[in-house]
Amino acid sequence: xxxxKLPAPTPGRPLLGLTVLVVEDSRFACEAMRLLCLRSGARIxxxxxIRSARRHLQVYRPSVxxxxxxxxxxxxxxxxxxxxxxxxxxxxxxGISGDDAGAEAAIAAGxxxxxxxxxxxxxxxxxxxxxxxxxxxxxxxxHPVSGEVVHPDRLAFREDMAHLDAVxxxxxxxxxxxxxxxxxxxxxxxxxxxxxxxxxxxxxxSRREGRTTRPDEARIAGLVRxxxxxxxxI
Length: 234
Hints:
Elements: E1 19-23, H1 27-40, E2 43-47, H2 50-59, E3 64-68, E4 70-71, E5 74-75, H3 76-85, E6 92-97, H4 102-109, E7 113-116, H5 122-130, H6 154-169, H7 177-191, H8 194-209, H9 214-233
Parallel strand pairs: 1-2, 1-3, 3-6, 6-7
Antiparallel strand pairs: 4-5
């Protein structure tokens, strides 16, 4: 899978020399994974949608692909399936989502593993990738598993809130509420923001049950504006 000239992984940097493509539309979640890659010795490339990911893949072949299941231009499951069937296949493909129920679908689509958001624990991140690498790319012998948790810059969280604010202020007829619920749930879980997560679940529930979503939309719009005001003060 890898160029033999790549540096050997070490206990402190078990992903040394690998290139990780993160397909994730949340700036906050992506910033966490950037920090995880940095701590692990890996290089990171980012795509915020399926179309952008495909452009990246026309130019280079990453060692690892982490794909969010809910993206603005389609389902990450479609991209996972394509990557899993590619020849040559990308070495490690991992699905990520703010919905734990996505694990089964990700594996069925061809992913090697699944990480539930928040993806912020160094040891879990490293292990999810390392256990699917060929033996020559793994750290030899026993080594401690890091318990470190990374903390993304709150400015990235503000960017996500600004994006949601723009969506909620836009024309209602062009608003993809299923995407809003998924995107908000992922951010909320990554940020540990329980009110936002509850609002996302309420919107998703209203959509499933065919009820009006106007109260849910109003609640989300208000919470998003509150978060923007809070981060502006910070």
